[in-house]
Design a protein that fits this description.
Low-confidence stretches: 459-470
Mean pLDDT: 80
Oligomer: single chain
Strand order of the largest sheet: 6-5-9-8-7
Number of domains: 3
């Protein structure tokens, strides 16, 4: 973003005016009296809201004992250089100002009070990002996770949009549409041109699931290799984009380029719509009640739910994560997905993650909990990988454990492993887990089943949990601080004694 935009010109003029006024030790009232410009108008100028007319600028220049050209020039003194540097940071403009509506003039005014220090802080953050190879989209997806967590991953406005869409198209709770049904809705309700392709003429796109092309009659190209479940999700998401009237959305699956946070957020909203449309809320709540009422752990019930809803494991587990906090009081839960085209690389990198927690303030608690949740997930999945390799003809493996974290809280963790070779994804797993709070313990009847104990993982010590480096450093710092405070207290006590050795 260039400093010569109209908005930035207003901001720079306001900052220069405020700096000159401060240097002259003039209050707003005093400058108003000297220049004839009202206090309220001066305030708007300094905050970058207004740009004065030439006659006003002339009077202000006289009052501040400077000349007109110097006041209107975009050249700034050394002290304000960091402010302009921040104005030109694309991610700051896209992320803070455009997406989240942070008042640019207000932020720049704050920076003007201590420009060098605040600019150093902001630039340091991005220097760290560069050193750790963090891309702009990492910030966007991290922000999306925070957005989900703050809302307990349940969004009433999308649920209502789904209900309205169903009513308008005579889709009842008993209706179970397949991909052809959703495709027909796209074509008839929203006049989509939906075509199947193998992308043979575009070899670099063969791994893509879809390509969307805007137009008077929108075109959706989808990969012929997609499974029925993947088509259901793809067409359902497109119905979400059209129904909610989302314009800023990804044009390809997978992402070709993450252009802004709006694209990331809207993609999530479309995906949420697809899940809510395909998996009826009331029906799934009843099925979960039945699942939790069982007195023994029955993994086959998870598979039955996948078959019943004709949904992918990820879609089912994501939908469950929408409903558990709202309708069951499970407010301490997480979702993790691992996927890889090569089984040997499975569990190398998390491809999707969500954490809901009661404590969103204590950084040490957050780091500890997320690290523990990843550890138990990876431990369970490694055990399932071994079962997978020793079993022929398996479509999926479902398993669960009860484990205890460092704080003494019990967790129930459920995982499903299934290969999806259609697009060469040969190792895919989804996991959902939650803290066994009093509300959870009252709801789930099979928690006392011995088959769920963590000992079933066998040589668990090889995956022993170790706090990450930053957490260990925090704890060491805390212990040093306590030792320092004890030392200071003891010295003060000694100083109060007669004939103390420190007098």
């Amino acid at each position: 973003m260039e400093t010569t935009t109209e908005e930035n010109i207003r901001i720079i003029f306001g900052l220069k005016l405020k700096k000159l006024r401060s240097d002259k030790k003039l209050s707003l009232q005093e400058l108003s009296a000297k220049s004839g410009v009202s206090v309220s108008y001066l305030n708007e100028i300094e905050n970058g809201k207004k740009y004065p007319k030439p006659d006003k600028i002339t009077e202000l220049a006289k009052a501040l004992e400077t000349n007109y050209d110097q006041l209107v020039s975009l050249k700034i003194n050394k002290n304000l250089t960091p402010v302009v540097q921040v104005l030109n940071l694309k991610i700051i403009n896209d992320f803070l100002f455009d997406t989240f509506g942070v008042d640019k003039g207000l932020l720049m005014s704050m920076m003007a009070s201590a420009p060098t220090r605040l600019s150093a802080l902001i630039n340091s953050v991005f220097e760290i990002a560069r050193n750790y190879n963090l891309q702009e989209e990492h910030f966007y997806f991290s922000c999306l996770r925070s957005y989900q967590e703050m809302n307990d991953n349940y969004f009433e406005d999308i649920e209502l949009a789904v209900d309205t869409f169903k009513n308008n198209n005579n889709i009842t709770a008993d209706t179970q549409l397949n991909s052809d049904g959703y495709r027909k809705l796209l074509e008839t309700v929203y006049h989509y041109n939906v075509k199947e392709t193998d992308f043979v003429e575009y070899p670099k796109l063969r791994g893509f699931r879809s390509v969307f092309v805007k137009g008077e009659k929108p075109t959706l190209l989808f990969n012929t290799k997609l499974t029925e479940q993947q088509r259901v999700f793809l067409f359902g998401r497109e119905l979400g984009f059209a129904t909610i009237k989302i314009d800023k959305r990804p044009m390809t699956t997978s992402w070709l380029k993450v252009e802004s946070f709006d694209h990331v957020l809207n993609n999530f909203r479309g995906a949420y719509f697809a899940q809510a449309l395909h998996i009826n809320k009331e029906t799934l709540i009843a099925d979960l009640e039945n699942f939790f009422a069982q007195t023994t752990w029955k993994p086959e019930l998870i598979v039955q739910l996948i078959d019943k809803y004709k949904a992918s494991p990820e879609m089912l587990f994501q939908r469950i994560s929408n409903l558990l906090p709202k309708y069951f009081g499970f407010n301490e839960l997480y979702f993790i997905r691992y996927s890889s085209r090569e089984p040997a690389k499975h569990l190398k990198e998390i491809s999707k993650e969500l954490h809901l927690s009661r404590n969103q303030v204590d950084l040490e608690y957050i780091i500890s909990e997320q690290n523990y949740r990843r550890w138990i997930t990876k431990s369970l999945m490694r055990n399932m990988d071994q079962l997978w390799n020793n079993t022929e003809g398996k479509k999926e493996i479902v398993d669960a454990v009860i484990s205890k974290n460092e704080a003494g809280e019990d967790y129930l963790t459920l995982s499903l492993l299934r290969a999806m070779p259609e697009l060469n994804n040969n190792a895919n797993s989804v996991t959902i887990g939650f803290v066994l709070t009093d509300a959870v313990k009252k709801k789930i009847n099979f928690l006392h089943d011995p088959a769920l104990r963590i000992e079933k993982l066998g040589a668990i010590n090889e995956f022993a949990f170790e706090a990450p480096l930053q957490l260990r450093k925090m704890r060491e710092e805390e212990m040093r601080t306590k030792e320092y405070e004890r030392l200071v207290t003891e010295l003060k006590c000694l100083q109060q004694r007669p004939n103390n050795p420190y007098s």
